[in-house]
Amino acid sequence: MSRAAAWPYKTFSYLMLTLIGLTMIVPFAWMIATSFKPATEILRPNFFPVAPTIANYETVLFDTALPRWYWNSIVVAVMSTVSVAFFDSLAGYVFAKYQFPGKRIIFILFLSSLMVPTEMLIIPWYIMSVHPIVGSSWVDTYWGIAFPGLITAAGVFLMRQFMQGVPNELLDAARMDGVSEFGLFWRIAIPLALPAVGALCIFNFLGNWNAFIWPLIITSARDMMTLPVGIQFFSTEAGADWHLIMTGATLSVVPLLLIVIFFQRYIIDGIALTGIKG
Amino acid sequence: MSRSKFTVFLLSCLLVLLMSSQAFLQDDVIEIEYWQYNFGGRIEAMDDLIAQFEAANPDVRVIHNSDIAYDNFRDEIAASAPAGVGPDVVTLFYGWIPAFVDAGYLVPLPEEDFPAEWIESYFSPMVAESKFLDQYWSIPTAVRTLALFWNKDMFEAAGLDPEKPPTTLEELVEMAQALTIYDGNGTEILNIAQEGFPPQLSGQWHHWFREVLLRQYGGVPYSDDLRSVMWNSPEGCEAFTYMSDFETVYKTGSNDLFTDATNAFVTGLAAIHIDGSFRLGTIRNNNPDLNYGVAELPVGPNGERHNFGSYWTHGITRRAAGDERRMDAAVRFLKFITTAEAGLTWVEYTGELPAQLEAAADEELLADPILGPFAASLAYSHATFFVDETAQRQVLIDAFDNIRLAGVDPCQALNDAALVEQEILDQFWADQ
Amino acid sequence: MFQLTLARKKILWAYLFLAIPLIFFLYIRIYPTLFAFEMSLYDWNPLAEEQEYIGTENYERLATELNNPRSVTRAAFSNTIVYVVLGVPIQLSIALLVALMLNEIGRLTMLYRLLFFLPFVTSTISIAWVFRALYQPQFGFLNVLLTLFSLPQQPFLKSPTQALPSILAMIIWQGLGFAVIIFLAGVKQIPRDYYEAATVDGANRWQSFRRITLPLLNPSIVYLIVLQSISFLRTFAPVLAMTTQGDGGPLNSTTTVVLRIYREAFQRFDMGFAAAQTVFLFAIILVVTIVQMRLTTRATD
């Protein structure tokens, strides 16, 4: 395509992207602005606080268990992300690179778990947690919050698509050189798919940060709750404390924003490098 | 097995032995678990009561779990029950009791410890109204009634006497209209800048209809055997029309504005509001400068007074009943937290009224300018017998939404709603 | 002979590698799912000690309610269909458009990419509260904007007709970034020279898009359609957080199947009926997924 033909498209693209981009950012701006408003100013039409205050942050940080919820969210998200990174990649690799009887059935079995709403598994999971096969009750433990998400079907699916991009010739050559089967995965497939693994980690971390129903049920001690569950405390029998909800929401978004800003290359280039093959 | 491994094995055996003997030695202390939802004052009040109880009963330890947000309280109980864990003594909204009894989750209060005559003479009459299947399943520490909140500054600005809230239903309409301010772009609901009196069916208005307005207009909400819906009578229709007119005819506000009516009042955007005493804490926390007053609800067309009373009430669970010693401890604990003294302790922390008649008649309480009107209403309060409070509330929310959003005639909407609620009642009683 | 043992060895390794994930899925996912299926045959009340077997009664009730135009259950299923049928195509079209435009521009790509990824980073529960506020009459930002342009205020979440589209807009907004990223990755994979060859052949942009971009993007499209359909079919948290008391109102206009499942199970303690709805939803998702996979993969061949 010639440069001359491209410029109107480019201008149009910039325009549209800016427009859609603005709608992406307005809710955040409003959320942040609101977190600096006193309770009495929430229901006023002004976008920015008239009498800005950091009282909400003081309340949320010092009078609630929010710092603790933060920490819990991080621990759980890291735990599950490490596990997901390893097991999802391994399973994805097997589905992409091995032929074996029952492959289709097992893959469908994995995928089918995406289709059952989590809400319905809560009671069985809870019973499993109170009377676990190992150790004592998992209620109010990090393990208890994390275990349903330690391996994810969506991740296996994603990694299978990626691993198909790893050249067979490379694997076969290494196999001839005497590299073990696990070595093939660990030393060849993983390094090649590393950007994709990075993307998977970020998606998974975000997903965990967002998890609501299960952490809600499995924790009954306030000190073990995760952020989305803890924020529920700002909506009480006496109604919703909007100023505190917005402050909590702002605080819960900040670390994720940083992660995304730091790793954004990974997120996109990771997927682009290995690519999705049908 | 190597020598060192054997040593470790021996040591751990020893440890287990030690620990079990420890448990054996402490066997004379029984632990029971108590659950309530998370709400500031209630937690402190219960902590105080538990400390007193444990001091008087050194053989019982009460684990207090109040870390569950209000919205999720029932979910947590529902999840804990099949796993065989959860509370021994639990605080539930009285309207939920039938569902918990129905499932066999609660056990009846032992007659020898809580005789029916004693409950009926010691507690506010609304407690007796919750007798179910000829038995008492729970008793409260405190009860709640409704009152009218008004914003004195807005009354003054509208040229009304800031010390004279509406006392009759007509006055309420007049003042609500006088207090409504529009933004200049029109006089539709969405143009309201200050609400005179916003309807809030999801809040207290559905109670106000069933137990207050309906009775003031001469109707009754349910048949005496509690099995039939009666609120869709002509009287009910009049009462419901009176309510819906605030939004559809007089346009004095809507629950849709300013997130909801409660928030609107608390933040100083609505002039009149009907609510319970638990709202006092919200105002104190979120808008301490609000210049407001509290009054008894307006009288009906014939000058009759009625009010709606409700309460969170404590029951003993199946889990406690499964073990004699737990049950004994649970009974003692329940007795302790429902005395008149406990009721007065509770008022201090929560602003809820004592459930015990002698404590509720407290001079100081009745003279209190804010709590007084709530306490005075106790004498004429009714507690609705709910089989499924959430569903029954939803029925009236939907009826009201049908009027204001779908333009259905109030009487028609009420009749349609009655059919839905009758089904809920039928389904419930069919299982008994 | 050597080949055979290698193949055998590889099969063994495959099983070995899959052992832990397989055990995990069987124990953590499949077994509880079967448990849920079993619940659907009981009058299962989580608070009760013993559960009563009632055969297919829950399914019969589901059938009756689905045939009753006024029932909540029916509203939930029909709303859910609306969420999927509107949500998936709208979200994916916008995402594709954005991805193509992002590929078009040279400068500031990083910044724009970040912008579109922002919403994906937020917790649904928190951001739903933000949208709830934005949609409010009088003080909500959207209505303030309308007033600014002298347009009449809109009730948005408070109106039985506007509420569902309002919630849908939030869901599309939040999930857009993910779809954009996947598409962008796909678009970047398409070799430049394909387009150049097409231009030489006299194809215009639209033709290049139809003949090169769309077919080559197929794997991404399949992946997204399948995943997003499942996720729209399971719409729950935004409705819970954006409607008054999480009731899926006004007048049941926004309620979804999963919201009903949650309510029946944990608020009305009717887990048997909730489980029956889960099984039915599961069947729907399964059929939809299989059909989509068939149709979309055939399109590439």
Q: How is the quaternary structure best described?
A: heterotrimer
Residue fraction in strands of chain C: under 5%
Count of DSSP helices of chain C? 13
One letter per element, helices H and strands E, the order of chain A comes to HHHHHHHHHHHEEH
User: What is the CA-based Rg of chain C, rounded?
Assistant: 24 Å
What is the rounded distance between the termini of chain C?
Answer: 36 Å
Low-confidence stretches of chain C: none
> Which parts of chain A are unreliable, with pLDDT below 50 for 5 consecutive residues or more?
none
Helix content of chain A: 55-70%
Strand order of the largest sheet of chain A: 1-2
* Number of DSSP-assigned strands of chain A: 2
The 3D shape of chain C can be described as flat
Describe the protein.
The complex is a heterotrimer of chains A (278), B (432) and C (301). Chain A has twelve helices and two strands. Chain A has helices at residues 3-35, 55-63, 66-97, 103-112, 122-130, 142-146, 153-163, 168-176, 181-210, 213-218, 227-231, 242-274, and strands at 235-236, 239-240. Chain A is globular and about 70 Å long. In chain B, helix 9 packs across helix 10. Chain B has 20 helices and 15 strands. Chain B is an alpha+beta fold. Chains A and C meet through helix 1, helix 3, helix 4, helix 5 and helix 7 of A and helix 1, helix 3, helix 4, helix 5 and helix 6 of C.
Considering the chains and any ligands shown, give keywords for the structure.
heterotrimer, A: 278 residues, mainly alpha, two-stranded antiparallel sheet, globular, B: 432 residues, 20 helices
How is this structure best summarized?
Chain A is an all-alpha fold and 278 residues long. Chain A has helices spanning 3-35, 55-63, 66-97, 103-112, 122-130, 142-146, 153-163, 168-176, 181-210, 213-218, 227-231, 242-274, and strands at 235-236, 239-240.
Topology:
The complex is a heterotrimer of chains A (278), B (432) and C (301).
Chain A: H1 3-35, H2 55-63, H3 66-97, H4 103-112, H5 122-130, H6 142-146, H7 153-163, H8 168-176, H9 181-210, H10 213-218, H11 227-231, E1 235-236, E2 239-240, H12 242-274
Antiparallel strand pairs in A: 1-2
Helix pairs in contact in A: 1-12, 2-12, 3-7, 3-9, 7-9, 8-9, 9-12
Chain B: H1 3-25, E1 30-37, H2 40-56, E2 60-68, H3 73-80, E3 89-93, H4 97-102, E4 106-107, H5 116-122, H6 125-128, E5 138-140, E6 142-143, E7 146-151, H7 152-157, H8 169-178, E8 181-182, E9 192-194, H9 201-216, H10 234-248, H11 261-266, E10 272-276, H12 279-286, E11 292-295, E12 307-308, E13 312-317, H13 318-321, H14 324-337, H15 340-350, E14 353-354, H16 357-360, H17 363-367, H18 372-377, E15 381-382, H19 389-406, H20 410-430
Parallel strand pairs in B: 1-2, 1-3, 12-15
Antiparallel strand pairs in B: 3-13, 4-13, 5-13, 6-14, 7-10, 7-11, 8-9
Helix pairs in contact in B: 2-15, 9-10, 19-20
Chain C: H1 2-39, E1 42-43, E2 52-53, H2 57-67, H3 72-104, H4 109-117, H5 124-134, H6 141-148, H7 163-189, H8 192-200, H9 205-216, H10 218-233, H11 237-242, H12 257-266, H13 271-300
Antiparallel strand pairs in C: 1-2
Helix pairs in contact in C: 1-13, 2-3, 2-13, 3-7, 3-10, 3-12, 7-10, 10-13, 12-13
